[in-house]
Amino acid sequence: MPEMSHNEETTSVDSALDSLLEQKDAAHEPKVRRTGSFLWRICIGGGVLVVAVFSVLVFAQTPPSAFPSGFVVTIPKGMTISETAVLLEEKEVIRSSFLFKILSLLLGGNSGLKAGEYHFSDPISVYEVAKRFSGGIQNVSEIRVTIPEGLSNAEVASLLVKSLPRLDRVRFVELTKKKEGYLFPDTYVFQQNATEEDIITELTQNFEKRILPLRTALERSGKTPQDILIMASLIEGEARTSETRREISGILWRRMELGMLLQVDAVFPYILGKNTFEVTTEDLKVDSPYNTYKYAGLPPGPINNPSFDAISASVHPNKTVYLYYLTDSEGVMHYARTHAEHLTNRAKYLGK
Fold this sequence. Notes:
The chain has helices spanning 6-61, 81-90, 97-108, 126-135, 153-163, 169-175, 196-210, 215-221, 225-238, 242-257, 267-272, 281-285, 308-315, 339-350, and strands at 71-75, 116-120, 142-146, 187-191, 324-327, 333-336. With 352 residues, the protein is mainly α.
């Protein structure tokens, strides 16, 4: 066998190595292409999945188009997360009861939802809904109500239900039967879910607080707080200014001292439910303990809820020489010492 030179041997080895490398490269090239294609498909699939999940979450998070703004939902004690989720989905507060349950568990854990009444004034996401229920954030809106002086309890009830439609007017009137005069006229801020008891408590507590400056003078007057309040309600119905209130207070207290009938026209709207002070002959004959043309002394209770000014006038009456008064068509008060003077005033100012 002929011997090869060193150069020939080296060339032969290099050729063999090149051949092996070419074969290796050829063998690996398709595998590289297949691996790259597989990774690309994973990336595309993963991207589609992420977009799909994101879209579902966005859809589930978005408030329903028919979100019931102003809706109040009550969660009684013991109501489960699942029951609440179904209720909210039915009412279209949320789109996904499943997502609500998941979020509620994450936010509230084993403690679950807080019982109470929840108010939704504006559309919010399912996350915000779950956050409120888990944290007991009721978000009940506040309602500002002004109660004018001189309204009876029944009229106060009618006024309140206009701003608080969930209020039971009949129940409110029933609960305040013995509180006529004690529902202090003022501007109040109530929660929308306030109960009849809540409102009555706030009004009567405000009464006690507001008349506190009159307590000392009331005790010195020698009159009972109830008599002062009854007289204040009569004054409220008869006069509109501080000075006329104090003058009429003096007249009415003086008539009582003399044993005269009070003859206050303002009782008839309370007795008969009339919305006018025009008194007829038939009105004067009505048999009611509140009829001050028929029965002497004060009525058995207040006929309205008087202002602080009227209560103050009842406590601080003018020392007057008059026993009669009337109001003309312009609202001006005219006083008289005697019945004859009073009849003259009637003819002059009222044409009667």
